[in-house]
Structure formats: C-alpha cells, structure tokens
C-alpha cells in the first residue's frame, strides 16, 4: 500500500511474522475447541469379537516370529536394507528381482525397532546381531550420499538387480556413490516418512539395546541425520540442489525428531528442542486435526503420526507441553481406535497403559494376521462388502485376513476394498514381528 505524499511501499498492517503467528495460534485454538466439544463418535459394529487373551491359542507364535526374522535376513536384505523379492511364480520361491526399494529406509527402521524389542524381551544374540545388521543398513543409507542426507535405498552398480531397481525408482532420481570401495546407485527424492521411520527405529533401539557400542553408533547416526535437517532449515535437499520435501508445517514431526535427538545426544539437541518446543508445541494438533478428516485416503499418514507421537509424548518431561502432545494424540486415536490395527494398539498400550478391550483385541488381530498369505495376491471385495463414500471404501473396517495384501498392513486403510498384485511379491512380515514383540514387552501376551 502506498502512503499519501510518499513513493515508498509498506506492508499492510498486521502482515508480518507476528500476524502469521497470531493466525496459527487462532487456528490451533479453533481446532482444539472443535475437537474438545465434539462428542465421541458412535462406534460401529465390532469387527472381531474380543475374547480373553488366555483362551487365544498363541502356541507357535514365537516360532513364527523367529521364522519371519530368519526369512528377512535371508531374502529381504540383499544389500543390507529392506526390500521385497519378486518370485518366479505364485507357488515358487526363487527370486528373479526386487521391488518396493523406494521405502527401504522406513521399513529398515521399523525392522530395527522389531528386533530391538525382541532383544529386550529375550536377550537373544541373534536379535542383537539382526539389530546390528539393520543399523549398518541405515548407516549405509547416510554414508552413500556423502552429505549426511538419507537415501531411500541403494544397490551395487554391478548387481544383477540394479537395472530393475533403478528403472522402477527412476522418478525419484538415481545417484552414484562409493561405499567401502564399491560403487552403488542410490535413490533420492527422500520423503519425510523415510526419516520418520528410520528415526523411530533408532530411538527404540537406543532404548532397548543396552550394548554401549550400539548406543554410540545410534547417537552418532541420529546426530548426523538431524544436523543435516537443521542445517538445511528442515528441507531435504538433494546433491543437485533440488528439495524433495520439507518439514515446515509439521511441528509434530520436527519436535518428535528433536525429542529423539535430545534423548540420544542431550548436549547437542536439548537447547534446540526446548526452543522449538516453546514455539511449536501448541501447533502440533493442527496438521493432525486436518489429517483425521479423511480416515481412508493416504492412510500411511496415521502411521507416521502414531510413531512420531510415541516418542514425543513418552519422553516429554514438561506437563505443560505434554498436554499439547497428548491432546493431539487423543484426536488421532479417536479416529483410529476402531480400525483393527495391532500396531496402533501397541503404541496406545505404551502411552496409556492397560485397557482390557484393546488388549483383548490385539492378539485376535495378530492371530488373523497369521492367517494371511505372505504374497501380494489380488483382492477385490467390491460387491461382497458394502462400500460407503467411494467405490473402494468399505463402510466398516474389513477383517484382517481379508484385507488387501501389502508391505506393512497397519499403514494401509482397513476400509480398502480392492488392491494387490499377482502373487509374485513376498512381504517381509515386519507388520507381525513389530507388534508381536511389543506385545511381549508390554505384557499383552
């Protein structure tokens, strides 16, 4: 706006940083008011009957979990990070290629968390070794980029699988680097979910694995990952200068990652966390409140929110700020608590303690998971189960054994009526071993 008698231009009143802060504060207060006043939604018909845990047959579950871990070591870590084999045929196990490599980082983080809980429960040397393998894989995803950036995945340039993997991931950007004298392709366009999954796993492993060497490696790795993000103002910057994503507008994720940082490296991150907490805590609810408006599409957002709030809440030492974080979690959980999700149930157990109904449901969900095939068989329930709102959305959560086959069941919509492949891709099974070992640790099983 130009002032009379002057050629200068100034901002309209209230358009500065203080005004933006006021707008965000007003938005946060409006969201809080809306969700506080809204009555608890009426629950739909139960998906699975809740039976006492002591009459659920869990015999053989530990053997199944150990078998999954062994399979992961043998078939899903060809280059140290999680990816899924493409088999010769639906009824043969020979591996002809690998796929889903673009999510190697996040699922390696989830796998690390599973083996860390297993180690805490059993003190198994195999669990410790598996955790070290996963940790080394994550380390390679940081080392290979040469800048402290986290890569999505990597594959040796001389591997017979390199051509197919790089072709599938070409849209994410293919880069080259060297690791221990060997040349690799690595995949860029790293997303926030890759960072959140990796840091979730590192946080759990730092807590559950008491080995000093492992804890030292984790502290150094977390420090490198966070310093990269902080130094780049919470933007994920590729070597060519392109920004693949930003954490701006995600106070929940920034604070969750810094919370992990101050837990493993207090001297480096405690002050920064406290500063960001004072500025951002009251806004944590805002993105989550918008995400819960749609409980079907982009369902993976609920996994990210859940694993981030897991560490943000339980390690918060201020009751004032914890109240903000807990309110955001309450809004999130009110959306997902009837979705039949064993993974979310176990996070809820960790944050809120025992609950009879939920803790009876979790073993049923795990039992149903064991009845699912490990391959990506095509599923089409349209016309069999009623749809609501859109053609591929069921009106109620679909029973676990009937749900679409996928890489990690608990990050897929429980309402999805159609999806899958041709039965050639083998899922790793992290979606069983993570909630299973958490259930053992938190004494649900």
Provide a quick synopsis of the model.
Among the domains are: 135 residues, no CATH class; 171 residues, no CATH class. It is 51% helix and 12% strand.
Structure description:
A hairpin with a 2-residue loop joins strand 4 (174-179) and strand 5 (182-187). It is globular, with a radius of gyration of 23 Å. It has 445 residues and is mainly alpha-helical. The protein has helices spanning 17-37, 61-75, 104-122, 125-143, 162-168, 192-208, 212-231, 251-264, 266-280, 285-291, 300-314, 319-336, 342-352, 356-370, 430-441, and strands at 84-89, 92-99, 153-156, 174-179, 182-187, 235-237, 243-246, 375-380, 418-426. It has a three-stranded antiparallel β-sheet with strand order 3-5-4, sandwiched between helices. Among the domains are: 48-73 and 337-445, no CATH class; 78-248, no CATH class. The protein has 15 helices and nine strands. Residues 1-16 and 44-52 have low confidence and may be disordered.
Q: What's the structural blueprint in terms of helices and strands?
A:
Elements: H1 17-37, H2 61-75, E1 84-89, E2 92-99, H3 104-122, H4 125-143, E3 153-156, H5 162-168, E4 174-179, E5 182-187, H6 192-208, H7 212-231, E6 235-237, E7 243-246, H8 251-264, H9 266-280, H10 285-291, H11 300-314, H12 319-336, H13 342-352, H14 356-370, E8 375-380, E9 418-426, H15 430-441
Antiparallel strand pairs: 1-2, 3-5, 4-5, 6-7, 8-9
Helix pairs in contact: 2-15, 3-4, 3-6, 3-15, 4-7, 6-7, 6-8, 6-11, 7-8, 8-9, 8-11, 10-12, 11-12, 11-13, 13-14, 13-15, 14-15
